[in-house]
Amino acid sequence: MSLDESTPATIQDRKADHLRICLEDDVQCRQITTGLENYRFIHCGLPELSYDQVDISTTFLDKALRTPLLISSMTGGTEQARLINQRLAVTAQKFGLAMGVGSQRVAVERPELANTFNVRHYAPNALLFANLGAVQLNYSYGLEHCQRVVDWLEADALILHLNPLQECVQTRGDTDFSGLMAKIETLCAQLPIPIIAKEVGNGISGDLAQKLINIGISAIDTAGAGGTSWARVESERAEDVKQRRLGQTFSDWGMPTAECIVGIRAIAPKIPLIASGGLRNGLDVAKTLALGADIAGMALPFLKAADHSEAALDTLSDILIAELKTALFCTGQGNLKDLKQAQVLQHIP
């Protein structure tokens, strides 16, 4: 492990910093966008269906979802994070959403913090994803650690997040990504649940997706550029001028979310695909689904609502669902399968 991570309290402090910075500071990408603004739906003035008939239910990794939304991985490891995760889990259960937790490494280092992640009690029927950094497979982690975080959460799948840029900017980050493909392949063969490969805001290309699929990855989360910049987040908490400058230089690095979806679908039409990275409303969600994603993930909107109250999460979820259903209704599509198959999304030159 890197020097700062060998002290468990430091990991917990970093979790608290990440929450504070994301909630209080402007750490969004400023130049690069999701690319979704380059697409527009063809309006249907006569939908020939009732709004009440619009069905947004789906399945993902063989589990039913009433809504094709993922509360993307965010946090854990602190008391504030425990409350946020609890509220998010209640929302996932209530509205039929999927949910991922933040990196559980802090709980591996300090098992007494596992309860800040373990939300199955609040979401007994939800699709839940455990989460660890893929790079930790090069820092003494293996099957035992992955199985442990899965068991704690009673998770349906494990996210391995890929974050080379964040580790470069993070003070004394873990930057040895050599040989990870082989280790991920071994883990895919050993772990009895699906493994999802996820970036953290810089995107996954079609070429990388193909390599990941070839080694046994079961699903991919684009986590493209256009939303929160983790280079900017790490720059805000950097301990020296060099790391701060690195984060500023690379704050708009990455592939737009829309570009990732199109690129991955071009080479892998059937891989379970999560679209995330800068999505802010139900219309964004509808566009990603029409482009070929199976479900769509959001982090910041849910984080801000969860920091406020469960009622705020209810309001946000109601709005997102209404926006998504309205997009289907006003394009004349009664369900998500029809939306994907219909040619109702135009690219704007």
TrEMBL record:
It comes from Leptothoe spongobia TAU-MAC 1115. Keywords: Cytoplasm, Flavoprotein, FMN, Isomerase, Isoprene biosynthesis, Magnesium, Metal-binding, NADP. Belongs to the IPP isomerase type 2 family. Homooctamer. Dimer of tetramers. FMN binds at S72, S73, M74, T75, S103, N131, K198, T228, G278, L279, R280, A299, L300. Its cofactor is FMN; Mg(2+); NADPH. Residues 181-343 form the FMN-dependent dehydrogenase domain. Involved in the biosynthesis of isoprenoids. Catalyzes the 1,3-allylic rearrangement of the homoallylic substrate isopentenyl (IPP) to its allylic isomer, dimethylallyl diphosphate (DMAPP). Mg(2+) binds at E167. The keyword Isomerase applies. It catalyses: isopentenyl diphosphate = dimethylallyl diphosphate. The keyword NADP applies. The lineage of its organism: Bacteria, Bacillati, Cyanobacteriota, Cyanophyceae, Nodosilineales. SUPFAM superfamilies: FMN-linked oxidoreductases. GO terms for molecular function: FMN binding; isopentenyl-diphosphate delta-isomerase activity; magnesium ion binding; NADPH binding; oxidoreductase activity. Its main location: cytoplasm. This is Isopentenyl-diphosphate delta-isomerase. It comes from the Bacteria. One of its GO terms (biological process) is isoprenoid biosynthetic process. GO terms for cellular component: cytoplasm. Substrate binds at R14, K15, S103, Q104, R105, Q166. Its EC number is 5.3.3.2.
